[in-house]
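2.7 Reproducibility. Because tokenized structures are sensitive to small changes in the input, we list the exact sequence used for Ammonium transporter, including any N-terminal residues retained from the expression construct. No trimming or masking was applied before prediction.
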Amino acid sequence: MKNLKLPLAALALAALPGLALAQDGPAPGVNPATDTVFILNSLLFLIGGCLVFWMAAGFAMLEAGLVRSKNVTMQLTKNMALFSLAAVFYWLIGYNLMYPLGNWAVDGVLSGVFGPGVLEAVGITAEGADDYSYATTGSDFFFQLMFCAATASIVSGTLAERIKLWPFLIFTIVLTSVIYPFQASWKWGGGFLEQMGFLDFAGSTVVHSVGGWAALTGALILGPRIGKYKDGKTIPMPGSNLALATLGTFILWMGWFGFNGGSQLAMGSIGDVADISRIFANTNAAAAGGAVAALVLTQLLFRKPDLTMILNGALAGLVAITAEPLTPGLGLSTLIGAIGGVIVVFAVPFLDKLQIDDVVGAIPVHLFCGIWGTVAVVLSNPDATLLKQLTGIAVVGIFTIAASAAVWMILRATTGIRVEEEDEVNGLDMAELGMEAYPEFSPS
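Resulting structure tokens (single pass, no recycling of outputs):
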């Protein structure tokens, strides 16, 4: 994302009228018009980052509602821990690995900048800013961190109810410090996928498919929950609180306006603000399209609407539009989201037939619809080609599967990744944490 917006910032400067009307003129080295762009861009990142941060609460509520009551505390703990670990390790390793700013150890593939991210000095002036024509380093770091943390949240829900806490957190560290930023540098850091012409505006592939591939790999290695599949049949394991799951979905829906809108990466001109407004409207339309498609389709297939499918349908629409929320119109955005909703309704039972146990439906939502959204870019963006989009999907997928599988296999061989059978049956809240989410309702 970062490198693509520098030309836009320059255009914004040219478009803004001269604001230096003070009697004595601007101080040497300071341009009030540039100041305005710098301030507005930084505010966009900070506000967008806060909205994406709020998505962490959405993931936590969604997962807490879709797991059984004996595993709720575990999911909440994982979500608090994974976000905090992502914040630390993205700073220590990931940020500079993701954004080499032209300093490549291997051209277009591996950053040559290693070590912790460094913020600008306190009270910087125009001369002291890292990039006076763009935004503050702190605002950019804050915004990008939230995307990194969201990737780990995707994995958490899929592997719920049977994975050990600490091996999961170790995987989170590797995912957020190495796997995610490494592949993201290929696109948003100006790497070979960017140079090739692969398009992914806000991360249908770079964020959501990466989380989905990591989750799928983990689910295959970890195996399904005890009792989920018997005699070729799928045994329902209803979640504990659909109210929480619904709240989580609406929080995610709201946060997505920052996810996609903030990815415009510039707010210093009328054109930028108009584009951000368009992105907000398209993002909302896609979510609505996904929810409506899931609502209607479950009524037709099952004779009753399925709330969990409707929730995931809305999320599917959001993931699908993330690759290109700017160029489509409202009608096409709604259609892209609706196809995402259809994908989810068919993909959930398809995974069950393969006995791939995805507790919250994250693989259909984030992986399958991430792929669909990345392909759908060709429907509205004339710069996209199907071959380049498929190449980007394949490259990121192969890398994420290989890297994730290596980490999961090492963890399985050393610490183990699955809890004991008795602990899984009794629930991870007591087995792993000794604390229940609903103690008043648990059997004594």
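The chain has one domain: 33-424.
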